[in-house]
Amino acid sequence: MRALIVVACAVALGGCDLLIREQRPQSPPHAEQAPSAAADVFAAPNEEFEPVEPTIFRIVGAPTVWDALAPLGRSFEPEGRDPTFTARIRVSGEDQIADILRTGLADDAVGTEHIRIEFRREPDGWYPTNAYVRQKCRRGPSPDTWTRAPCP
Description:
Blueprint: H1 2-23, H2 33-42, E1 50-52, H3 65-74, E2 84-92, E3 95-103, E4 110-122, E5 125-137, E6 146-147
Antiparallel strand pairs: 1-5, 2-3, 3-4, 4-5, 5-6
């Protein structure tokens, strides 16, 4: 009887090990390269952007920077596209800087839009002080290259 219990436990544990191995996600072969590529995009200096007024993106003060960015996430007009919104917020001294990448925009000239908004802390929340934008165009002399100029 004891031998039967030991065999049953061994089979059960072996089955659990198999189940655990099957549930572990396999990472894609280039998974480590994706974050560094995104980090390079977010590290671009402000000189590579066109300065704009933050209000063109409907960005105003809010209790948190994430709350202030909400209008950007709602401003897609997908028209059958699959839009994406990737944001990263970093601290710079007393301020916070938000970098936002938007793809799948309704604009057929713009492939990807990179928006940078700088925020300062006030007693009642975070307020935008500066905003910048650049884009990758879908067509033109250098498609898929970051540019400050409007896309053709």
